Amino acid sequence: MNKEIHEFNRARWEAGAQRWAECADRRGLWKRCPTEPNLVLSERELYWLKAIQNKNVCVLGSGDNQVVFALAGLGAHVTSVDISESQLEIAKQRAEELKLSIEFIRADVTDLSEIPSDRFDLVYTGGHVAVWVSDIEKYYSEAARILKTNGPFIVSEYHPFRRIWKDSKTELIVGNDYYNQGPYEYLQSDDILRPDEGKLKTYEFHWTFSDYLNAMIKSGCEILELDEFGNHVGDWEGAPLKGLPELFMAVGRKK
Predict the structure, then answer these.
(1) What element of type H or E holds 23?
(2) Which one, out of 4, 24, 125, 213, has a CA that is 20 to 30 A from the CA of 96?
(3) What are phi and psi of 188, to 5 degrees?
(4) Mean pLDDT, to the nearest integer, of 170-174?
(5) What distance, in Å, lies between the first and last C-alpha atoms of the chain?
């Protein structure tokens, strides 16, 4: 784990939190998630989450907390963990507006030492989290540590095949070797969604599909299901990605 890299990434999220929140406000999904969880969770994710009422659930790398709000709406007792204090403060205000009771913890996903082992019935993580994390094995081992035996560990992430392409409106051109995990260093603005050149140093890690799965296995979980889904191409994605899987899900169970 590289704490210095994580601090650079945290600082950028602190700087960009308000602009990210304004984008979320324009979309309006966070207000609807508690009653319409399908807006932010796939059919297969919802299948694994159907019995979480009154269960203790943790979301790691909670970001805009839309998944957190959806799980709370499904009746879970949710703990939201994120590295950005600003993101969590915005989420707290929104949770109050939605009248949701949620526990918020600021922590790096590779160091959850303030959370006891075997605390949660289910752990969920994903949504462009791993790209900011320098040690995916430590990240997933911490997730498994705080999970009860036989509890599900759900990872739902942006598909790694989409991270390798150069910006081009008309053709797919490989810009980054799929097997080069990084770190990739950038100087960017505080606009997370459309990052122009700026003064904020940030780092990305491009984990492969096998990196995700092996990290889950090494954490002490057996893999129960894999799924690839989604075909939306966002206007922030700089290549014609139609036909490539958008997201993937891996479900493990702590042995």
Answers:
(1) helix 3-27
(2) 125
(3) -135, 170
(4) 95
(5) 25
Residue 250: CB atoms within 10 Å: 22
Decide the pairing of beta strands 152-158 and 247-254. Answer: antiparallel
Angstrom distance (rounded) from CA 37 to CA 15: 29
Contacts 24+ apart (CB under 8 A), 94-101: 94/30, 94/65, 94/69, 95/65, 95/68, 95/69, 98/30, 98/31, 98/34, 98/69, 100/34, 100/69, 100/72, 100/73, 101/72, 101/77
If you search the block for the tokens 């790209």, which residue do you land on?
131
Q: Alpha-carbon distance 254 to 51, whole Å? A: 17
Strand partners, 252: 153, 223
Q: Please report how the helices 85-98 and 66-73 are oriented relative to each other, as an axis angle in degrees rounded to 10.
A: 30
Q: Do 96 and 30 form a contact (C-beta atoms < 8 A)?
A: no
Residue pair 70/39 in contact (Cβ under 8 Å)? The answer is yes
Q: Rg of the chain's alpha carbons, rounded to an integer?
A: 17
**pLDDT tens-digit profile of 118-158?**
999 999 999 899 999 999 999 999 999 999 999 999 999 99
Whether 156 and 249 have beta carbons less than 8 Å apart is answered as yes
